[in-house]
Amino acid sequence: MSSPRTRPSPLAVSTAVLPVLGVLVLALAWTAELGVADQVLIAVLLVACVLSAVHHAEVVAHRVGEPYGSLILAVAVTIIEVGLIITLMLSGTAGAESLARDTAFAALMITINGIAGLVLLLGALRGHIARFNAVGTASALAVALSIATLTLVLPKFTTAEPGPIFTASQLTFAAAASAVLYLTFVFVQNIRHRDYFLPPKVTAATPVAAGAKLPGGDESAGYREQDGEDQHSVSPSDRAAWTSAALLLLSLVAVVGLAKIESPAIEAGVSSAGLPASFVGVVIAVIVLFPEALAAARNAVRDRVQVGLNLAYGSAAASIGLTIPTIAVASIWLPGELILGLSSLQITLLALTGLLAALTLLPGRATVMQATMHLVVFASFLYFAAVP
Asked: What are the subcellular locations of this protein (predicted)?
């Protein structure tokens, strides 16, 4: 007797249909005049395609394993981010010249404070102490902060060109340095020192909560194993992975194209809410990184804190390490100046974030105290972005 066929889940059906639907709507709406209702529907479809893109990136990531999976997710999110930035900059509206800076800075604040803080909070609430591999996580943080300083802080202090902008040669150097740092990080993460980015093995030197049971049932030693891998999760087949890879590409095309159509509505919404033009960058970063925040939170709930932090800090490094070089190349054709220098308020928040993150990562474990501090700094960033 043949075994009954398994029906695909509603999630699988929707994530397969959405990219195709997004591309079809993109083709129909590209030259059409859209009303308010059309703009709202396209906005909903845009967010759905972002969720679909991250879902398919997760499938491919699960197939290749850690830390390659986190890298794929980070690169996919960064492609969406760069596409949104360029499409909005091409619109030529007020504030477009600083959009890359505002989006990159918002991405750093969201990933290092918002997503990482959420991961640490969920991990600490689940096991009292959130444990992670400090060496690998700290190296990702160091790369993100180094690139941020080279590309977003230095333009504020250079004197070759008036204003918070680079000269052509300075921009070329900063973009090249960013690319070198990020590519070196990718090499270290995935080849040279891959073990630094895997969940730590708890040894006899790593205590756990009192009364916690060990794999063998012994409570007296006070230590347990933590591998962070989902033992009950079945790896997708090669066919499923290749299908998701193709749908991921379709999703990226749909997201970038729909963002181009929706860009006037995004800017009008920010303006009508009485928010500064720079808040458009925050909106872009939130749209792009929200699905990744969900993925990181799911991993933290499953006691995979390291995977969640790989997503957070890997996205921070990718967002700044890939976005700035790409925008630097694109600036050859983009209209207007490219303002990269942060304001004094933003530099202060970046310095506080770097110091707090370094102190959090140094011990290789964190409690709700560290998580709360990161989340409070994140809330402060959102407030002062709206009320500078």
From this structure: Membrane
Provide mean pLDDT across the span 34-45: 85
Instruction: Note whether 86 and 330 are within 8 A (CB).
Output: yes
User: Are the CB atoms for 97 and 335 separated by under 8 Å?
Assistant: no
Measured in degrees and rounded to the nearest 5, phi and psi for residue 354 equal -65, -45
In order of 78, 146, 187, the CA distances from 67 in angstroms are 17, 21, 11
Structure tokens that stand for 369 in this block: 């105290």
- Average pLDDT of 344-363? 95
**pTM of model > 0.70:** yes
For residue 301, the domain's CATH number is 1.20.1420.30
CA atoms of 307 and 206, how far apart (whole Å)? 19
Run of H or E residues at 177: helix 168-187
Strand 365-366, strand 130-131: pairing: antiparallel
Q: What do you get for the CA distance between the two ends of the chain, in Å?
A: 69
**Domain count along the chain:** 1
pLDDT band at 380 (very low <50, low <70, confident <90, very high): very high
Q: Using CA atoms in the order 362, 69, 330, 290, what is the torsion angle rounded to 10 degrees?
A: -80
CA distance 48 to 221: 48
Quick check: 147 and 350 in contact, CB under 8 A? Answer: no
Per DSSP, the three-state class of 365 is strand
DSSP state, residue 210: T
Q: For 216-230, b where at least 16 C-beta lie within 10 A, e where not — what string?
A: eeeeeeebbebebbe
* 288 Cβ contact partners less than 8 Å away, ≥ 6 residues apart: 50, 77, 80, 81, 84, 107
- Whether 352 maps to a domain, the answer reads yes
- Helix, strand or coil for residue 67? coil
Structural domain includes residue 108? yes
Q: Which structure tokens are listed for 85?
A: 């930035």
pLDDT band at 4 (very low <50, low <70, confident <90, very high): low
For residue 366, what are the β-bridge partners?
130
Please tell me the distance from the alpha carbon of residue 212 to that of residue 218, in angstroms, as a whole number.
Answer: 9
Domain that holds residue 80: 14-386
Residue 124, phi-psi category: left (phi > 0), alpha (psi -120 to 50), beta (remainder): alpha
51 burial type by CB count under 10 A (0-12 exposed, 13-18 middle, 19+ buried): middle
Please report whether residue 3 resides in a domain: no
Token pair 């909560």: residue? 209
